[in-house]
Amino acid sequence: NAGTEADVYISVYGERGDTGSRQLLRSQKPKKFLRGQTDIFAVEAVNLGHLYKIVIGHNGLGAGNGWFLDKVVIKDPITDLDYSFLCHRWLDQGQDDGNIARELTVTDASAFPGSKEKLWSAEKWKFQEGNTLQFYNRLTRGFICLSPDSRVDALGDKKNKYGKVFLMWMCA
Question: 45 versus 138: which is more confidently predicted?
């Protein structure tokens, strides 16, 4: 029951604008959004530049409309870049947090222009002395916090109790 028969919509956002909401209609498979299946869609759009986020969801209609979405990969035919958007969550009113739409940010560093060194130089400020780092573990759905005084809180609390922190994602 991880697939859906509901109508699925996506909005793609890039540095030059967005596509607006588009229904994903024609998969290369005879039946779309089945459990364990990879569906491929063609979405026509103006050149959005480098992509940074998507919003994907469904209308919640139909029997068994809940959907477990693993990830979305967008292949840009102009730049030949792949943009990965990891989800690993339910889009279901009766599962997880009850949301049927998710905002996902790009997670594949190869999609960013420039070298990995440029990417690190843009992100290294998060690891400076005095900053609290909070990692979210998708498997346990809990937080692990690394405090400036070298304390580690790995109890897996599901709520952010540390105020201003830099949230990182752990792959489980």
Answer: 45
